[in-house]
Amino acid sequence: MQFIDHAEIEVIAGKGGDGIVAFRREKYVPAGGPAGGNGGWGGSVIFRAEENLQTLLDFRYARTFKAPDGERGGPNNCTGASGEDLIVDVPCGTVIYDRETDEEIGDLVFHGQTFCVAKGGKGGLGNKHFLSNKNRAPEYALPGLEGEIKQLRLELKLLAEVGIIGLPNAGKSTLISALSAARPKIGAYPFTTLIPNLGVVKRPTGDGTVFADIPGLIEGAHQGVGLGHEFLRHIERTKVLVHLVDLNAENPIKNYETIQGELEAYGRGLPELPQIIALNKLDAGDREFADFITEELRQLTDAKILTISAVSRTGLEQLLQEIWDVLDHLKEISRNEASETSVMDLDSLHIADK
């Protein structure tokens, strides 16, 4: 399946049905009395998050989505039927932007979450609505209103708790295949991975945690150089980053600084994410050199530094334990913040009661 993480589309909500002019036939009632019904509402366009979708590929072929119009009113004060809402399924993690203002208008994260992107037009009023003491037989009605028309840009941001980053050939795909059931393409040349790979890693508690292998970033990625700029957005939702550094590279320290520079330049909260530095390919390297690089990195960062080999699976248990510890710590912080907020709300309620 082709991975597409952005698309531009047009959504058109349905037009409201027209009100009508009609009269009933009753004795002693001028012109029979107004009995024209209102038009029905036009259908709205609603996006719904679907966990079984992983790409925006469908939006490459269907770029216009139109909801049905409402039906016109009927005689005997009958209101026209409303147009059915058009439900459009999108992957969880889809962010919706208004292309004309570049404003983010929606973010669908959870399965089943919905968002109305274009509201249907209101039905027109029939002549019954305009009955008054001064006008006992109104001969006019209102047309239905047009539905909203919007030009949208969709961006998919993967919902992964752990992001694996590093320069091309640092061993990201090998690592995710060693930790999970994911089987990405692996090759001994740069840019083997052209799309993000997702893998679910089982925790000791039995829960699954989603890992994302982000295609190789290179210097200048935040400005559109290489492939990485296409996928930097996918790291924004992660809670912890595993930064793989190739011990067999010509200059591992420079490689580390290159990726850190790209995160800083991209911004959007990425530099503040917790990181674990994993010096990879120990199986083909030298332990003394690994110790030397570790000491050099400790002068640059307070992040945890581990030495691993994704190929021989050396050090992977320790790496996973560090990841679980960070995630548990973040969960505890979130729980405490939620508890403090609840206490503050309760205090405010007591003050209000007084």
What CATH architecture of the largest domain would you give? 3-Layer(aba) Sandwich
Spatial order of strands in the largest sheet: 10-11-9-12-13-14
Radius of gyration in whole Å, from Cα? 29 Å
Largest sheet: 6 strands, mixed
**What is the CATH homology-level superfamily of the largest domain?**
P-loop containing nucleotide triphosphate hydrolases
Q: Which structural category do the helix and sheet elements fall into?
A: alpha/beta
DSSP, total strands: 14
Distance between the termini: 62 Å
CATH level 3 topology of the largest domain: Rossmann fold
- Helix share, percent: 10-25%
**Overall morphology:** rod-shaped
Order of helices and strands: EEEEEEEEEHEEEHEHEH
Question: Keywords, please?
Answer:
2 domains, 354 residues, Spo0b-associated Gtp-binding Protein, Chain: A, 4 helices, six-stranded mixed beta sheet, five-stranded mixed beta sheet, alpha/beta, Rossmann fold
